[in-house]
Amino acid sequence: MSSVFPLRFRRLSESSLVFANEAGQFFKSNDRFLERLDNEKLTKSDQEFLFDHAMASRRAGDINEMSYLHRLASRLRPPTDLSYVILVPTLRCDLACSYCQVSRAAINAKGFDWSDETLLNVKSYLSKSVSKRIQVEFQGGEPTLRLDLMSQIMDFCREHFEESRFIICTNLSVVNEAFVDIISAEDVFVSSSLDGSPDLHRKQRTNTKSQTDEFFKNFSRVGELIGDRLSALPTLDSKNLPAPSDFLDTFDHYNMRSVFLRPVVYHGFARKRHPTSKDHQSVWQKFYEACIYEMIARNIGETSDFYEEYYLTLILKRLLRPGEDNHIDLRSPNWLGYDHQLIDYDGRIYPSDEARMMARTGQVDLSIGDVFAGLDEEKRGALQGRAFNALDPWCSQCPYQAACGSDPIDDLARHGRADVPKPATAYCQKHLHIFDFAMKLIYSEDKKNQHSLALWLGLPSPIFLGDVLQ
Ligand code: SF4
Questions:
Q1: Domains, the chain, ranges and CATH?
Q2: How far, in Å, is the centroid of ligand 1 from the Cα of 407?
Q3: Of 42, 135, 168, 246, which is most buried, counting CB atoms within 10 Å of its CB?
Q4: What's 276's DSSP letter?
Q5: pTM of the model
Q6: Of the residues 422, 427, 429, which should be mutated to test ligand 1's pocket, given the most ligand atoms within 8 Å of the CB?
Q7: Which runs of E-coded beta strand occur in 162-278?
């Protein structure tokens, strides 16, 4: 007789359900198994299946119990030192995108750049808070308006830390020789925004034909200069979605096949300009799936240059491999303001970019200190109450809990509070959809789907990854 580690379940289709335990091991079965489980009448073959898949133990302390406990413990990582910092040397920007989340300041506005004193204190704060490795993401506003400040931070990090990496998030409206010089270093990456075809990009961002042409010219030039150190993120308006094939063609044209599909987020000032972004789930979900199937159709043969959607690949890895914990929006515990912080143009420190947006829009001040006086431990501590999805009454019954995360700042931004029942949150609805979709792909008999799954996970193709209990 085996003792089964507690299982949760969710219906995938009329005839199938996914079962999972708290450690994240899962399998597909049916209503007959659910009934046997519920009535405590598991058959010998049920018990053998569960024991063989390490989801039940035969005695206390056997290998299955130890591996289950090990998996559980490895998901509960303690907080780590600061290693990822978003720096905002200026809030000024030369564009005015309709869904800007941070309310940029006008290009000639005064008082929205780091002062000499702020720069000095940023360096001092980093030297005290970061131990060996640092990844710096420069954001704005448009950070390239202050190339001088970026250069000084880069020099400082290279000198003080064992390893440094820099990402410049820029609209690429201006590419001058000083910028080209900065990005020629191998530890510098450029991330820009590319919403799709020139027409769509103009409507959402650049407004005029000349600014649009300038952007695409600069984008091509930077791509030629730094190759795959250039990446681009789209932000898509659910009311104005492109055809998936046109959209992928644009990215393909620039040799970009890993795409992070993101709708306009109901944060910051996008709340005013795009109010429907709060309730776009069903339209967005259809578009999202259509894009993935278009990618799958294009992923033919063995290739290292395949199409993938960044977040779906992350979700698949989290479902199938414990330890993929680096994405701040998809982890639990989600230690807010520990390994990942943002330092704003005025020296204030926030646990994330979304948190600073909420302060800018006057919703709530989630700053956790500043570079002059240091961290406010009490404020940082107050944010951790909802960092664990395992403590949430809904998540603790959800088969995806081990792979899912917790994002109380998103809940606050969208719903005005962090204790909304999970199923009513945009975070939960988005993730339930992607997890269900990932399960559909994992349990698909279609060789094309299996081939793409293998490419995304770096496994031999084709591959069928799901366990099934009949
Ligand atoms: S947020 Fe939703 S999908 Fe994620 S674990 Fe909680 S209930 Fe499940």
A1: 82-375 (3.20.20.70)
A2: 11
A3: 168
A4: G
A5: 0.91
A6: 422
A7: 163-169, 188-193, 230-233, 258-259
